[in-house]
# Entry
Amino acid sequence: MGARIDPRKLTRELLAFDTVNPPGMERACALHLGALLEGAGFQTAYHEYAEGRTSLIARIGDGSRPPICFTGHMDVVPLGAAKWAREPFAGETDGDRLYGRGSTDMKGGIAAFVAAAVELAPKLARGPGLVLVITAGEEIGCEGARFLADRKLLGEAGAIVVAEPTANYPYVGHKGLCWFDIETRGVTAHGSMPEVGDNAILKMARVIGDLEHFHFPVENHAVMGKPTMNVGTIRGGLNTNSVPDETHITLDTRTVPGIDHAHLCKSLESLLAPRGAHVRKIVDVPSLYTEPANEWVQQVFEMCTPLLGGRPEPRTITFSTDGTDLKRGFGGAVPAVILGPGEPALAHQTDEWCSMARMEQSVDLFTTIIRRWNGI
Ligand SMILES: [Zn+2]
# Structure
């Protein structure tokens, strides 16, 4: 067996790199992980989708069969307006809790799979092996993962573990996310003579009324439930005594498998065309789903059972992940689970922390999953 890495120590090292996105700047963090993995026998490659926005791919194995993939993102969200009681980048601990921005989402997850990978490395060179995809730019639209998939830099994998915060419960997917900007235009006029203008806010009011009656092409999914739609922002009008000539809303839709986002955009366009509204897609992350009956998913459920004290139920999480782009990059038919040590409720929170006991459990669980894939 290879060197044993303490996942708590590695998480603390990763927390010390300020990868708050924006601006992200993941390069130094990627190089640190790359050096560690190279030392253990992995082949590494760095890919930047923009200056300093570095993703790392580390591989080991003989290519006889597709390797198993573990993935995590290095960027973290901003600290927020509320003051932290703990140092966000110092890795403070208190009892079982390791505090810091990114401890849960998701440097603790990266540290857990890197620790498992380094320890197993000497046994993985002869066999299908392992590929680690450690990305930049996940928090704002999965830019790093999309770049790797679009440029066909990922190579092969037979299954994906996305180590996002799930408190070590294996989830079989998540909804898609499709955001739109919708605009109405009119003609401005003095507020005392509205009849000579054309009011863009009134047009938008009718648009919103139409949206309340919108039906998604798939109304319900057996595991994910219903797709949703939320009008998140509205902006229009410059002053009270003018007829507004421009109004925007932004719309957040969360989709289930079977809803194609290009088709969704067309449906909204044709629904709102009679109102003269212009629909523009601004963020697009498709859903991720693996049938719970999939053989490997069933194996993962079995391997999680002792830890959870019972066999997991098929469930999906509420947030979206890099898993969608990686699955596409690996050819589309690859099963994926979302499984990691972080606490889902603490992601993006003030005084975010990760349980160190869960981190240790993840190392053991990931070790078991990698061993099983490699037959060792
Ligand atoms: Zn995350």
